[in-house]
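Recap from last week: sequence in, structure out.
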Amino acid sequence: MSVEAQRTLTIELDVDQVRQTVGAMRTAISSVIEGKTEQIDLAIMVLLAGGHLLIEDVPGVGKTMLAKALARSIDCTVRRIQFTPDLLPSDITGVSVYNQETHDFQFKPGGVFANIVVGDEINRASPKTQSALLEAMEERQVSVDGTTHRLPPPFMVVATQNPIEMEGTYPLPEAQRDRFMARIQMGYPTRNAEIEMLDAHGAASPLATLQPVTDGTTLTRLASGLGRVHVAPAVKGYIVDVVDATRTNTDLRLGASPRAGLHLLRAVRVRAAMHGRDYVTPDDVQALLGPVLGHRLLLTSQARLAGRKPADVVRAAAGTVPVPRGN
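Predicted structure tokens:
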């Protein structure tokens, strides 16, 4: 068997297992979150891409429930951090405590030391406390008192936040928003989905009976294989051109960063595998522009007054970039 044939066979096997794993996770999470297949798929996609997820919407639409269901579907360590105005950075990262018996300092890990970290209502904590996650999200490590502590793989932060217009919220720092691979909005359920929710959640929460369908080791192995999903040079150029188009758009005072392009590349590889392909198409890129780029952009005052939304500006910027033909 040639090297190219071996490469193709390996990718096909990886893609097949990705689809099976994603299907099992989708089914498990859908038993808790009714009628939100698109949001569930995007959450799973970010997990396999090695990114972090920001879930934003008004209270009561299932943000925290989605985060918990995603975590429960995986056999790994999970920690939940409730962000409040009095939360300290050391509550997240950990602190060194002096042990009088050993006459030495011992490190007590904070809430970030887990495979899946659920940060509930992250924008109710002060910007200083929010920023305690920066190193962990980017470098998968925490530095306390001059000592670096590695975080266990896989590592993912799933944060929920209320819209910044809600009382008692602080806007996320730009640097932290940029570290989230994607942002999703739950939206209100359809009438039928809401009736199903009343039936399913009326007596007891189905979250209590949700069983893991995969584990952290399997996800880490699948994620490493997804780097072999083929991205043609023309598609890579398309990603760079779309990201660059946001930087020159007159409706934006801050466009997408180079990190945004990297996150988009990783996400489209996972999307291709989830659709049974070992190559990325421009359609994959276009489908993820809003979730991956929208939350990173800062509108100008004039654009905000005109009622424009980041997703609309992203689509307009992408419309100025020629779409590559073929794979």
